[in-house]
Amino acid sequence: MRVSFIVGLLMSLWTSQVFGVEPPPLSASDLPGDDGKAVLLLWPRMPYEASQVFYVVQGAEEPEGPFEEVTRFPSTSRYRTERRAPFWTWRKGKDEHFFVVRTIGGTPLESSREYYFRLGVDLGEGPSFGSAVSALPKPNWFDFKKLNNFIFMVLFAGVVLWFIGRARKKELFLRRIPGLDAIEEAIGRATEMGRPIYYLTGRLGMSSVSTIAATIILRDIAKRAAGYDAQLKVPHTDPVVMAVCREVVKGAYLEAGRPDAYKEEINFYVTDDQFSYTMAVDGMMVRERPAAVFLMGYYYAESLLLAEVGASVGAIQIAGTDAEHQLPFFVTACDYTLMGEELYAASAYLSKEPALIGTLRAQDVGKAFLTTFLVLGAIAYTLGVWAGIEHKMEYFLDILRDFP
Amino acid sequence: MSPELLGAWVAAGLTLAIFSFLYRDNPFFKFGEHLYIGISVGYSLTLLIFNFMIPKWWTPLFREGRMSLLVPTVLGLLIWTRFFPRFSWLSRWAFAFIVGFGAGITIPRMISNFIFRQVESTAVPLVSRGPGGVSFGWEDLSNFLIAFGVLSVLTYFFFSVEHKGPIRPLARAGVLFLMVSFGASFGYTVMARVSLLFGRMYDLVEYSSRGYGYATLILLGIMVAVFSAQALSKRREGE
């Protein structure tokens, strides 16, 4: 190891003494697919490269300088192949080096401003620089690295629309979710005991899918509660969600033929602070001892605090969340838990809305596609390792890979 | 009384008031609960006014004349039309914007984080190549478990087919993987919560020292006395 290092160093020094070190030709251009605050530098691989030979990149705001060092690295690194980029935007290989400049002297680059760069080669006696080149970073409308994300979204949207169309024409099968059977039982129990039903929609706003699902399930529960003349209470942490839920509950009471039983106070605002909301709901549960508690939507650390108090007052608890970190607490403290996508499935099952059923069926198609891709990817990668060509499998896996 | 001493008494008193919920619902807890809600609403409102409304809306719009901010202003005002039933339909424009904007921001991020990154971590080789050739080691076993776990959990979440026949054992395996993961997550979080409890306990112990006027002990004594008096009066009422 040490011998090869010394030999390499001597070879590099000899080459530089005999032939002179000519820095490689540098090309600078705007980095495509960004916010216009980076420049891409490229230069070809040179014969004198060795681990003890360094490339030095300098940058300046004016053509005459002053140039400041941007980076310095061994000449055997930063080949094109080392950059994480998809095959449709970036050619991999070891014939060129690259460097992405984002700052000069600690100052971030500004878009639409010209910058100057020069490349030096350092054999241990100080770098010798080539001539300076310029680049003008500009913002781009589209990041082609994320083309796969866009195509996946468009294709999936197409599948969703197609299944929604099919769901409108004929009934699509959805398997029954066990937790849903308990809803009727919970509402019936609350009616018999003369105690209230608590329905919580989670901690997120209306832009969250889980909150939307929670409001859809609320419609079904409010309709049943209106039918049984049970007392429903929906404490809120988000005013927009409260406004939407008021409409939902009002509509449900109308559908049940009980508009007279509807009260605006069914939905009420508590606070948007996480733990004061939790404490308030806990306090109300202890005082009013609800017979049924529904915890639908997205939850954070308050999940166990709510579910544990609900269990302590003897309520039937049905939870549904896509917050995977909170699922263990609901599984532990609730009678039934709708896990992750089961929450969306429940909303589709209860509402019988073609849009929701079609979306759910499309999600199943998406899952089938991903399952197939995962199996094929794992097999291809394994065979690639077996044959010693695993790097070629990267092209296949790039199709469903995230490129930040 | 120094501000530090006063702070210690308030902190000890409110901590004990909230912990008293473990005994039962009581006036100390109700006081703490209402104080907490009131402060949080007041604090959020102040934060909203001074950190958002004034620097991001009032100053740019009315002092700097940035007319583009009229768009969010109008959308925000449309939400208020809910108070007037005749015009409440206008609020749907604002809600449509909120939901549409949220979906537009969220969907590409969801695809990146919840699909592409998961696929990348799962579609991995199930054997390794070392100096001695191809082998199957512990890391490969781990990769296999990850891949099998993901596939079986995905199978559990298929809603278009009944969990019968060959799907059933795979879906059951998916539930097992989920429960193992929930158990690990539960244990981890409980440990974190216990460490939070330690933090409060350390404070209570510190505030029970002479330097803080035995705040914890005196306040705890008052609470115990009140609870005892309550219990006695209830027993007499019962008799």
Ordered list of secondary-structure elements with their pairings:
The complex is a heterodimer of chains A (404) and B (239).
Chain A: H1 2-19, E1 27-30, E2 39-44, E3 54-60, E4 68-74, E5 96-101, E6 103-104, E7 107-108, E8 115-122, E9 127-129, E10 133-135, H2 147-169, H3 178-193, E11 197-202, H4 209-228, E12 232-236, H5 239-255, E13 267-269, H6 274-288, E14 292-298, H7 302-312, E15 316-321, H8 327-333, E16 336-339, H9 341-351, H10 354-387, H11 390-397
Parallel strand pairs in A: 11-12, 11-14, 12-13, 14-15, 15-16
Antiparallel strand pairs in A: 1-2, 2-5, 3-4, 3-8, 6-7, 8-9, 8-10
Helix pairs in contact in A: 2-10, 3-4, 4-5, 4-9, 6-7, 9-10, 10-11
Chain B: H1 3-19, H2 27-63, H3 70-80, H4 91-122, E1 128-130, E2 133-135, H5 138-156, H6 167-207, H7 215-238
Antiparallel strand pairs in B: 1-2
Helix pairs in contact in B: 1-2, 1-6, 1-7, 3-4, 5-6
Brief descriptors of the model:
heterodimer; A: 404 residues; alpha/beta; Immunoglobulin-like; Rossmann fold; 3 domains; six-stranded parallel β-sheet; 45% helix; elongated; B: 239 residues; mainly alpha; two-stranded antiparallel sheet; 7 helices
Q: Could you characterize the architecture of this molecule?
A:
The complex is a heterodimer of chains A (404) and B (239). Chain A has three domains: 23-135, Immunoglobulins (Immunoglobulin-like, Sandwich), CATH 2.60.40; 144-160 and 359-400, no CATH class; 172-352, 3-Layer(aba) Sandwich (Rossmann fold), CATH 3.40.50. In chain A, 45% of the residues lie in helices and 20% in strands. Chain A has helices at residues 2-19, 147-169, 178-193, 209-228, 239-255, 274-288, 302-312, 327-333, 341-351, 354-387, 390-397, and strands at 27-30, 39-44, 54-60, 68-74, 96-101, 103-104, 107-108, 115-122, 127-129, 133-135, 197-202, 232-236, 267-269, 292-298, 316-321, 336-339. Chain A is elongated and about 90 Å long. Chain A starts with a helix and ends in a 7-residue tail after the last helix. Chain B is mainly α. Chain B is extended. Chain B has a domain at 74-123. The chains are: A alpha/beta (404), B mainly alpha (239).
